[in-house]
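From the methods appendix. Each design record in this collection lists the tokenized structure first, followed by the designed amino acid sequence. Records were kept in a plain field format so they could be parsed without special tools. The example shown here is representative of the layout used throughout.

RECORD:
FOLD TOKENS (232 positions):
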């Protein structure tokens, strides 16, 4: 390490050096001797702040671009023109390309989510799992939905262990009165398919106890009783 690097490290890691010189009345002398190092530090801070601000600006503009690109793809998705939604129409980009180009943005991630749902609807379960597994969101409802959809894909593949895992994630991820009972019903069905009737009964019972006003309660009571019988 050079003398300049050693001095810079001292200034960065030992701020008491500055304080000692200031208190002893030697601050001007100390500043004059170290002004080049101080300029380097100040320049580094300015550069760091500049990079953060630029990064935020860049992501914001990229997110706006992704949102604009998604408009036609989402229209195709909602119209069940899923191949066009995924691959574009020759003029407008599809969800796959938008996800690849803007994957760091919220809109780009959402494009990946739509791509996963599209593949699920098309019966291409491995592709659906791939896109949904890459998806992450701070939106509680969408993230839980992604977990549930992965469970659906694994159920279609008769991979009941993985289906159970993702339905559990969906039902445990920031539970809501509106959607969690649905995920628990799916969890119970996955346990049934895996011949684990005791665990299925527990999943249905959770609906009964934790979500007594849910529209799923009557079905949960019926399936709980059935699975308790099968578990004996």
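DESIGN:
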């Amino acid at each position: 390490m050079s003398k300049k690097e050693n001095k810079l490290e001292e200034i960065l890691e030992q701020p008491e050096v500055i304080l000692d010189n200031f208190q002893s009345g030697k601050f001007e002398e100390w500043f004059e001797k170290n002004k080049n190092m101080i300029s380097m530090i100040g320049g580094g801070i300015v550069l760091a702040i500049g990079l953060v601000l630029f990064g935020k600006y860049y992501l914001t503009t990229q997110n706006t671009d992704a949102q604009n690109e998604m408009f036609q793809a989402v229209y195709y998705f909602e119209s069940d023109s899923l191949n066009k939604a995924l691959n574009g129409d020759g003029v407008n980009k599809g969800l796959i390309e938008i996800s690849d180009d803007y994957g760091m943005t919220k809109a780009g991630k959402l494009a990946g989510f739509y791509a996963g749902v599209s593949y699920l609807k098309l019966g291409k379960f491995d592709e659906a799992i791939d896109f949904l597994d890459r998806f992450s969101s701070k939106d509680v409802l969408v993230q839980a939905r992604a977990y549930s959809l992965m469970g659906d894909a694994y159920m279609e593949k008769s991979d009941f262990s993985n289906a159970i895992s993702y339905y559990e994630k969906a039902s445990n991820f920031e539970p809501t009165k509106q959607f969690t009972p649905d995920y628990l019903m799916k969890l119970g069905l996955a346990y049934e398919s895996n011949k684990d009737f005791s665990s299925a009964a527990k999943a249905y019972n959770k609906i009964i106890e934790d979500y007594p006003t849910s529209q799923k309660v009557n079905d949960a009571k019926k399936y709980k009783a059935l699975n308790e019988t099968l578990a004996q």
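APPENDIX NOTE: The longest helix spans residues 27-78.
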